Amino acid sequence: MLHPQAVELLTYARQVGCKVGLISNGSRFDEESSHALLQAGVDMIELSVDACTPEEYAIMRKGLDWQVLLDNARRLLSMRKELASPSRIVASGVNRKGLDIERVEAFWMQEIGVDYFIKRKFLTWGENTRLDAEISADPTPYLDTENVPCPFIFERLNIDSRGTVMVCGYDISARTCMGNVWQQSIQSIWLGEAFNHYRQLHLENRGRELPLCAGCPDWQYRSWWHNYWKVMQEAANNRHLSLNTGEQTTGEQG
Question: What stretches of 105-229 adopt beta strand conformation (E)?
Answer without folding.
Answer: 116-120, 158-159, 164-166, 179-180
